[in-house]
Structures are given as structure tokens and as C-alpha cells.
Amino acid sequence: MKRRTRTAGLLNFIEAVQKPRHDYGMQSSMLRSLVVAFLVAELSGDLQATPPSEKAGSVTLEAKPEPIAIDPTRSAVIIVDMENDFATKGGMFDRAGVDISGAQKAIPPIAKVLAAARQAGLKIVYLKMGYRPDLSDLGAIDSVNRTRHLKFGAGQKIQTPDGRESRMLIRDTWDTDIVPELKPQAGDVVIYKTRFSGFYQTDLDATLKKFGIKYLIVAGVTTSICVESTVRDAMFRDYLCVLLKDCMSEPIGHDLPRTNHDASLLNAEVLLGWVSDSEQFIKSLAAKASPALR
Prior knowledge:
It is a single chain. This protein is an alpha/beta fold. 42% of the residues lie in helices and 17% in strands. The protein has helices spanning 2-17, 24-49, 84-87, 92-95, 101-120, 144-152, 204-210, 223-236, 260-272, 278-288, and strands spanning 59-61, 68-70, 75-80, 123-129, 157-159, 165-167, 189-193, 215-221, 240-249, 274-276. α1 packs antiparallel against α2, α5 (101-120) runs parallel beside α10 and α8 packs parallel to α9. The chain is globular, with a radius of gyration of 21 Å.
């Protein structure tokens, strides 16, 4: 009944907005804003009508559009592309003039998330963008993936901050090493990827299934490119994703009134999963206060 009433209200409003007016730009803007607001209300309302039930052993994580109950024994923290090329002075982004301050700001909260997750026994999975030395996995000669990454300098030789020789975005070099503050530990999974999504032609899906993973706690860079691409593919495979908003960053559009980072979080909140932050995640695990689960 409520949905019928809301839908009728939307149609009446659209009919009113579409009446002839002199200010067509404002009319179009009003219509777009209304439709977006309506979709958010409809989808959020539907989600909240049937919240995930908390099962034995699960913890409740405060998030948007609603709290979500996650099972730590079936959860993994996914760290996306927190490597030197994207988050360290002297890396590819920094050399290209891309602002890496947001990525660096995300490092401390990610470190806290990793510490809490390891203590609780969650699986940790690192995704790293990196190519073979001959760039044979970069894509066809005219592919967008190849041409855009070459413009950024993929494969070029550089000197690292400590004087060593390295190559941008090449596997097993300083450039594709995870930043020292978030260094993988024994038992963690590290997977190289060659496209924005961590699922494209990788073992990520098979690895998660092997460990019985259902819930993905996602952090890393960049929010609207590699993070969102991975989350979309995860959602298509029926994983339940929670994005930790203070543990990710997006340089594209960072100076706009509404950033690409914010837009991607809204996508996740409305259609792709849930949005929370490091404090809420750590608090949910602390409330459980149980021994390691793996």
C-alpha cells in the first residue's frame, strides 16, 4: 500500500514538473533529482523491510542503508591496490601528478582494520595491479586498458626513493609492492590482477569459494575505479560487500562539489551492498570478543 501511494505521488509530481515552463534546465534538474531521491527511498525501504537476520556466531555491523549481520568465519577483508605505484611518493601516480594524499590518508585506518581482522581470524586478501615484464597481459595493441596505462608509464624504468631500479606496474618490483604499513603477513592471500576488477581472469572467486567466504569487507584505491569495479563483479557473484568509506580514496573528481568517491559510495549504498567505516567494523568485532575463528 505504501509503495502504491509513493508511486502515485511520484507520477503526479512528474506530471506537474513536465507541464510547460520557461526554465527547461531547472525543470530537467528537478525531474532528475526527484527520480534519484525516489529510487533511493524505494530501494532503501525495501532493504530495511527485510534486514539480514543475525545468526549464531555473527556480528552486527552498523552500515548504510541498514545494519548488516556478518559471519566472521565467512568473511574476508579485501585490500585493493594499496601498492607503491598508487599510494607512495615516487610511484606511478605521484610521478604523473595525481594527488595521492587521499590514498595515504586511508593507510592508518586500513592498518587498524587489518589488525582487528587478523585478531578475529578473518581472511585477508590483497589485490595488486601488476603486469608481466613483457606487458603481454596489458591487452590488445589498441585496447583502452593498454593505451591508458601506457600513458601513465606502465613498464617504464624508474629509480625508487631508496635508489633501486624498478619498473612501473610490473610484477615483483618495488612499484607493485604493498605499502610497508600494510605489508601482507603469513597466511594472507596476494593476487595480481591486470584489469580494474579483481575478478577479471584471476583466482579471486575460486579462492574465496575455497575458504567459504560470503562477506567482503572492502578497502583500497581507487574508490570509483578498481574498488567499485571489484565490488560490482562481487555483487554479480552474490557476495555481500561492505565498503569502508574512510579506508578508500578517489583522486578523480576529488575537487568537485560532489566527488566521484561520494558517488561510488552512493552506488554501493543503494544498489551494490553496504557502506560503513573502520570504526564501526572494529567495534563490531570487539563486541564479539572471541578467540581467533580460524
